[in-house]
Recover the amino acids of this structure.
């Protein structure tokens, strides 16, 4: 299916599923990961982009997504996931936690970014997750800065918190980014996710936007 046809279908799906209900802006959305929520002052901020960098395989990016789905499901909040590299393993998430999720499996980077632009404007989601892990670094590096500025502006004053998951620092418009560095190890698979989430170490790193603001 071509990209324009796919995106048109996404618009139709969103309009059919949520014809009148629009969320109102609120406080931050807790992720269920203590270190991450502490770094964010309580949770993912609505109307803003938050970049979460998983610098190594198994460093906790999938765990963050799983905990976010469980936490938002308990709060009866809707989540949209744009999966740019088909990285979600649904079998690793309790089935009930997937019931409030709209899962968009993009076929390329351009389609993923276009879908993000559509869904961030929709107004029915507490969180929009744009997962870019697995996309070739070269393709991501070639993404114009204007693309991120456009998504940043689209998110402003909207009810959704936008979480962008990357494998390396990427987004120029975020003042700060959060970094997961320590691999969890193979033994972590046998332990409860809530327990593991409490052990995730989160580092806050100044982004380009903050540096430019300070220089100005």
């Amino acid at each position: 299916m071509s990209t324009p046809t796919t995106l048109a279908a996404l618009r139709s799906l969103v309009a059919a599923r949520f014809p009148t209900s629009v969320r109102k802006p609120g406080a931050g959305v807790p992720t269920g990961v203590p270190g991450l929520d502490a770094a964010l002052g309580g949770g993912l901020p609505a109307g803003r982009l938050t970049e979460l960098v998983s610098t190594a395989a198994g460093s906790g990016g999938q765990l963050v997504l799983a905990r976010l789905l469980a936490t938002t499901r308990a709060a009866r909040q809707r989540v949209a996931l744009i999966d740019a590299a088909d990285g979600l393993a649904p079998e690793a998430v309790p089935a009930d936690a997937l019931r409030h999720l709209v899962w968009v499996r993009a076929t390329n980077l351009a389609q993923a970014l276009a879908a993000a632009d559509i869904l961030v404007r929709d107004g029915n989601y507490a969180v929009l997750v744009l997962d870019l892990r697995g996309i070739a670094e070269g393709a991501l590096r070639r993404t114009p800065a204007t693309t991120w500025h456009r998504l940043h502006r689209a998110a402003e004053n909207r009810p959704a918190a936008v979480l962008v998951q990357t494998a390396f620092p990427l987004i120029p418009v975020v003042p700060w980014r959060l970094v997961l560095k320590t691999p969890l190890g193979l033994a972590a698979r046998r332990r409860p996710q809530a327990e593991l989430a409490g052990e995730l170490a989160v580092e806050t790193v100044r982004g380009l936007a903050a540096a430019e603001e300070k220089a100005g």
Notes: Residues 32-215 form a domain with the Rossmann fold fold (CATH 3.40.50.300). Strands lie at 49-54, 79-83, 101-105, 127-131, 161-166, 176-180, 202-206. The helical segments are 3-17, 34-39, 61-74, 109-120, 137-141, 145-155, 193-197, 208-215.
